[in-house]
Design brief:
rod-shaped
C-alpha cells in the first residue's frame, strides 16, 4: 500500500461518517418535531 491509500481511505471514511451523522441528526430532529406537533393536537 502506498502512502496515498493510508491517508485517502480513512479520510473518505471520515467524510462519510460526518455526512451520515449530519443527515441522520437532521432526520431525527424533524421526526421529533413532528411527534411534538402531533401530541399537541
Amino acid at each position: 500500500m502506498t502512502l496515498e491509500h493510508i491517508i485517502f481511505i480513512p479520510g473518505v471514511a471520515l467524510i462519510g461518517v460526518i455526512i451520515g451523522y449530519t443527515l441522520g441528526s437532521r432526520a431525527v430532529r424533524a421526526e421529533f418535531e413532528r411527534l411534538k406537533r402531533r401530541a399537541r393536537e
